[in-house]
Write a structure and sequence with these properties.
Blueprint: E1 4-12, E2 27-32, E3 35-41, H1 48-51, E4 59-62, E5 67-70, E6 72-77, H2 79-85, E7 89-90, H3 97-105, E8 115-120, H4 131-138, E9 143-147, E10 152-155, H5 157-163, E11 174-176, H6 178-188, H7 192-207, E12 211-216, H8 222-231, E13 238-243, H9 248-253, E14 270-278, H10 308-320, E15 325-329, H11 332-345, E16 349-353, E17 356-357, H12 359-368, E18 371-374, H13 376-389, E19 396-397, H14 401-405, E20 410-412, H15 423-432, H16 449-455, E21 475-478, H17 487-491, E22 495-500, E23 503-507
Parallel strand pairs: 1-4, 1-5, 6-12, 7-8, 8-9, 12-13, 13-14, 14-15, 15-16, 16-18, 18-20
Antiparallel strand pairs: 1-2, 2-3, 5-21, 9-10, 10-11, 17-19, 21-22, 22-23
Amino acid sequence: MTAASLLQGVRVAGADRHLLPFGDEPVDVLLSGGRVADIAPHGTFDGWRARHTTLDAGEVIDGRGAWVLPGLWDHHVHMVQWALAAERVPLRDVTSAVDAAQKMSHAPVQADGRRVGSGYRDVLWADAPELTLLDAATNDVPTYLINADVHSVWLNSAALRREGFSEEEAPDGVLREADAFEISRRLNAADPAVADVAVLQAARRAAARGVVGLVDFDMAWNADAWARRTAAGFDTQHVEFAVYPADLERAVRSGFRSDDPLEGDRTGLVRVGALKVISDGSLGTRTAACFHGYSDDPHNHGIVTVPPEELHALLLRATAAGIRVAVHAIGDRALSNALDAFSATGAQGTIEHAQLVRHADLRRMGSLGITASVQPQHAIDDRDAADRLWATQEAIGYPLGSLRAAGIDVQLGSDAPVSPLDPWHAIAAAVHRTGDDRAPWHPEERLDIETALRASAHRGTAGNGGVRLGGAADLVLVDIDPAHASRDELRTMPVRTTLLAGRITHHSARTYGG
């Protein structure tokens, strides 16, 4: 992969522009050893190759007025699931169970004999998934429809039999929570070579959107998978991979500690991440654990999938081993339980999602120093469902501005494949809080563009990434100043060049001089 040593004629965007004395004037950024060695007015380094032979002899990129930002991270990705989604029938736009079943009746049969679709959202359908409906459309071909939230999977009778479930266990054909995750694990456990090729391709697409880092929450033993991928040539992003409770003791025996490099990874890109604990369900499957019932079913308060005492024990064990934690908590009851466990154990890490938060817990979360790892696109996708199903909730739905006002650090992600792996979608959603012609949904929860960009860099607003002297040369060049971009311009931001430690992982045009 080619390295760059000088960015000529670029302008600094984001909060870093206020820390430098150049304003919007073009500057040159000198890169050396994977870091930013100097920033000076445009033209300062003309002829620098001849005078500074000890500096890196990489390419000179003629920025031609492009805007330079810290490289972007997606802080919540299910990498294999996202990579394989390209091979599955897209169901995001189907509007009913009848439509979904009919679409799957024409779906191609994969090499393993299955039909697989993903991305449906039945939460606002007028009808509901039914086993007989899917059977009539798909006959004896094992057929699987994965909900967009991945917390439920709709199977036909042939698929239920193949996976060892009875129709009595799933009379409507729908498996939820732990059973649904098990189905997803089985579907994702394709030939590793096939999955790895898909991951490498997805990673290159991510680099084309300015992504320099991923936090991978695949439900697997990710250490072996990432060692295999780096050996096969993966070198486009930093990766922090999660461990799940079933593998926690294995991780402890292996000596894993958060932020340690993965043993055997010669690229230096992959590090141990957090223990991921899924403590409740989701809004779309109506299983997020809430203090108040769902509006269409007042007796349903969702599901606490990890009892408080078990959550406490997991956090205590991980913390003692030097592993931070990432607790999936969508409903306000689950989030409150998680904060109890953080407080009692001294654990550090993130609350993943935080889609319903009580006012009192905002203060608690801020005082505990817990970061909110959130996915702003979910607010756009879920607004109609939240308005209907959480109408009687008293907590704050899909907070962003309230989190920051409470002093809580925020980091942004996609939850791909729930939303596309594209940080610009998250940024646009955080800033504008709408994805169509409707007015912003709860505009008081918007982030300003500079905060959204900071939250999209490594570790979000708690991180220290930036376009600054000594900073990592994880950078992205874009054609539009984000500060003046419209919602649609942010979503489709033209990314010219992405640099990972000064190496070019993406370029849209070779406009480099030398």
